[in-house]
């Protein structure tokens, strides 16, 4: 067994082991980054831990961020490295709809950090991990060869989304679901410079992970963004 976190991880409904990413130069720096939920007293929380692989087991090196507000659902999370070796982490709204628009909170966000958990000085706010905000529950992140960062996100009863993520952008939740296509949404979008999705689905499809497929093995899928959905167990 590489790693046993059964004594630490809280697992109910959508909680548990959430996101994982390997160091971009794993062969020379065998670090593994894992996000999971845990209990702090009776409260569900989320943390991100860096582990080291010695060829046999994974051993914890450092806790990069913890005490993120969690819940049984809407906890994200996807981890991905950018080309500059900074790490992105998506967090859900933890069923607290006031927090995604609160840029002092890390809930309902996409966070960007160095590999030691510190804040990059070119973040939108150099004293904050927040990279983008107004997210409900993004479970897919992928940096495509065209250097566009895509995200898939669960909507409520309508408007699951596929987004392009840009720094300091507001994605509207909870006031806006999908496109800015109702009078209240239009007013909020104009006032808050909300970024609309590339696509939105109603009825919802429950979008999960995304990848960019660039292998010649299946020519029909080459150079396409692939999205897995949970409702119909489809690709």
First and last CA, distance: 31 Å
Largest sheet: 4 strands, antiparallel
Order of helices and strands: EEEEEEEEEEEHEEE
The count of helical stretches stands at 1
Low-confidence stretches: none
Helix fraction, binned, reads under 10%
For the secondary structure, the number of strands is: 14
Basic shape: globular
Strand content: 35-45%
Trace the largest sheet across and list its strands: 1-2-3-4
Q: What kind of assembly state do the chains in view correspond to?
A: single chain
Q: Could you tell me the radius of gyration in angstroms?
A: 18 Å
Q: Helices and strands: which structural class? A: mainly beta
Would you tell me the overall average pLDDT?
Answer: 97
Question: Could you please describe the fold and organization of this structure?
Answer:
4% of the residues lie in helices and 37% in strands. It contains 1 helix and 14 strands. The protein has one helix spanning 183-192; strands spanning 17-22, 31-40, 43-53, 58-69, 79-81, 87-90, 109-113, 130-133, 138-143, 149-153, 160-164, 199-201, 207-213, 224-229. Strands 1-2-3-4 form a 4-stranded antiparallel β-sheet, with no helix packed on it. A 4-stranded antiparallel β-sheet has the order 5-6-7-8, with no helix packed on it. A 4-stranded antiparallel β-sheet has the order 9-10-11-12, with no helix packed on it. The longest helix has 10 residues, at 183-192. The two termini are 31 Å apart.
Secondary structure elements and pairings:
Layout: E1 17-22, E2 31-40, E3 43-53, E4 58-69, E5 79-81, E6 87-90, E7 109-113, E8 130-133, E9 138-143, E10 149-153, E11 160-164, H1 183-192, E12 199-201, E13 207-213, E14 224-229
Antiparallel strand pairs: 1-2, 2-3, 3-4, 5-6, 6-7, 7-8, 9-10, 10-11, 11-12, 13-14
